[in-house]
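The protein record quoted for completeness.
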Amino acid sequence: MPTVKKKLALLKSKNEHIQLSGGIDRIDTQHSLGKLTARERLQLLYDQGFYDELYRFAEHQSHAFGLDKRDLPADGVVTGLGAIGGRLAYASSQDFMVMGGSVGGTHAWKICEIMDMALKAGAPYISINDSGGARIQEGVDSLRGYGRIFYYNTLLSGVVPQIAIIAGPCAGGAAYSPALMDFIIMVKDTGQMFIAGPEVIKAATGEIISAEELGGAAAQASQSGNVHFIAANDQEAIHIAHTLLSYLPANNTEDPPSLPTDSLLMIEDEALNYVVPDDSREPYDMYDILRSVFDSGSLFEVHSHYAKNIICSFARINGRVAGIVANQPIEKFGAIDIDASDKASRFVRFCNAFNIPLVSFVDVPGFLPGVEQEFGGIIRHGAKMLFSFSAATVPKISIVVRKAYGGAYLAMCAKSLGADRVVAWPTAEIAVMGAEGAVGVLYKNEIKAAADPKEKRKELIKEYREEFSTPYAAASKGLVDSVIEPKQTRGYLSVALESLRNKRDLRPQKKHGLIPL
């Protein structure tokens, strides 16, 4: 029928117009900036490039400032669902080619609708950000839209994983949605994220800084710690998202995806017995241990550019996912500072929310001393680690590799913080403080009265270390379950994790604990 043909032709015409987002010229411009289009990003995100686009024909409802004469295809954001690694996921992708990807009422409504679907379906949500910010022409409708997005970010938090990809500008209030999500991936050079841009800062404070120095990937990953992963381009950003999702369950009622394995691989690596130097003051690379213990190629570090004195990483052991928190002796000797506390606490809370067992590798001389740390709130920030590990109900296993001193040891999930299994290497030094400090307090007068105070101090330090700073003193009091050869660590972890697979840990009923923020 001619009428049907006309209707089909109209549908085809509308689809083609929306697909072009305003024209070939704008697509060419987007590509010239080294950026994919909103739909190209989703095609790359989803398996075989297929996704079901929802609210494709949604339009803005504003008539002010000439918007009634503006055609904004899909209102500047593409929303849809599809499979990623064979599992359902929902996504929104802002379209910079349509009014700079600015957020108006309908734009925000589309994003909230897709987030609500993710929540109800129990599936991850991925947000690809490329927007100039609020659509000023829509005034409070834009403001209300941002508020609803933030509200839904909070509803989804701890229920389904949320991943943000910053593939373009993300300034002002727009930055708060990614900040409320679990992980942020930023594209180098094209991605930018800040609350107040360089011009605003210059006008307000007189400080001069470029947009890249202020909100670029390097600054946001290493200085502020807002960004978890840096990508060279859109393609790598989406590849990182794929890898990240492969470690995560679809929601908080599921276990993380495991790779099939017939049996526990109890591999012993003789080199592990000698990885810790004889001199306890000499650093080594904790990654040498982690690579040996966990499945080959399975380490996937989070926040690698930030607070390098602590490692937070996903990994697999016998195909099962675990979350690792490990001190890194080659950075600040592995001491815990403000940034490391925040980094580890956030990671621990994520793993706990999504049923990912936690494994700590301990070599910590203490909390980092200094006036800047004290005034910056190291007490409050360090308490976040104590709170996070104590509150976690997933399986918790700690391996004491070398130094385990004072409150910093407790903060790495000691037995008294609810660790299910604690094992020590023979090189472990578990004590309230290091031998040097302890001797200075306990034997102050004896050293002063000695004929040779320096020699007497050395002698007492040696005696203290041999008698008290050993794993056996702690083991005798049940603070560690066992002392093992380092080469046995993988086997120990394999059995421990398997035995804790069905762990249940009931806590007092309450709305939520009050973490020291």
